[in-house]
Amino acid sequence: MKKIAVFSNMYPTEAHPTYGIFVKNQVGLLRSAGVETDVIAITDPQGGKIRSLAKYGKWMARAGFYMMKNRKKLSLTHAHYAFPTGLLSLIGKRRFGIPYVVTVHGGDIDKMAKKSARIRRLTADVLRGADHVITVGERLKQELISDFGVAENRITVMSMGVDQSVFRPLPKAEVRQELGLPEDAPVLLFIGNIIREKGVLELVKAFAGVKERFPHASLHLIGSTRSAGYVGEVEQWIAGQKIADITFEGTKPQAELAKWLAAADVLALPSYHEGFGLVALEAMASGTQVVASDVGGLPYLLGDRAGILVPPREVESLTGGLLEALSGDTTDDSGKREAVVREHSYDEILGRLLSIYGEIGRT
After folding, report:
1. Distance CA 315, CA 219 (A)
2. Could you say which DSSP state residue 189 is in?
3. CA nearest to 334, candidates 294, 300, 297, 284
4. Would you say 238 and 209 are in contact if contact means Cβ atoms under 8 Å apart?
5. What is the pLDDT of residues 195-249, one digit of tens each?
């Protein structure tokens, strides 16, 4: 196989270690298997209309020049997110005959494609023009078939996988001591951007109910707080209700996230929508119970007793799910959880990805 190019509008740096970390992990997986892989990505998560136009414009120009220069050396391109990233691969195919794979992560369909009729049309063009489409969940696959007319035989459901050398059970007492967490009190964890769509306000409200049963419990919110207005709204509610033991921990590198997941009793993921929910899989690999919204790819990941699913946006149901997980009176099945983790292991994901590349890539 010739080399491949990976396009992504999210990619981590030392300053932003979790920004698109799942793409970097997959690139590392490919390189470890001997696949020569170039990355053309956006590494700056900061927004603003002028700033965004500039960074996206430079990125697209850089990708276009790269494909023109390397068109004879590339086996294929792999775009993460249908829009806007997939447009780069679509242009590469139309201008230079380079086949491409696009991975749909959820937000590109649930949010981006709904912003305007034009974006939806461009998204459809990217999906229909792809030689193969990967979706991170079964629901996304069905949506692409029914709403975008993508042929079922060109779609594979496949997550980004979980690195079990990083995310694994660790001695709880030791990691709690290292992180400065109480040894015996319940520890609840949230990992993700602190934004409305992640259900953070509902989570802190549910935690207030948890405190009535477990007064020494703590809730730790890990993730970017760049949405200052929403963070302020959450902080105002916490202060108004005088709820103690809720901390904003900021962003963490992946190795430290693994320690937090191993130290926690419960990971809460109360999203309004979620393409797959990779952090839930990472929690499962760490041996930690997951309470999550019954949306997107989460029912497939956490169904059949692998976790606890609750309706989105319902504080009372979320409180009940968290209490169920903490009380030990739960239907959780650790054997099922381990089976799900094996299904999404890096070895399994790599084999399937290379098979797709082999089918469509130029030799």
Report:
1. 15
2. E
3. 284
4. no
5. 999 999 999 999 999 999 999 999 999 998 878 899 999 999 999 999 999 999 9
**Which pTM was predicted?**
0.85
* Dihedral angle computed from the Cα positions of residues 118, 139, 301 and 234, in that order, rounded to the nearest 10 degrees: 40
Paired tokens of 363: 């030799």
- The one-character DSSP state at 222 is E
Domains detected in the chain: 3-161+345-360 (3.40.50.2000), 172-343 (3.40.50.2000)
Q: How far apart are CA 169 and CA 131, in angstroms?
A: 39
> What tokens were used for 297?
């790819």
DSSP 219: E
Q: Classify residue 162 by its DSSP letter.
A: B
Cα separation, 299 vs 185, in Å, equals 29
DSSP, residue by residue, 283-327:
HHHTT-EEEEES-TTHHHHHTTTTSEEE-TT-HHHHHHHHHHHHH
Rounded Cα gap, residues 312 and 45, in angstroms: 27
How many Å is the Cα radius of gyration of the chain?
Answer: 21
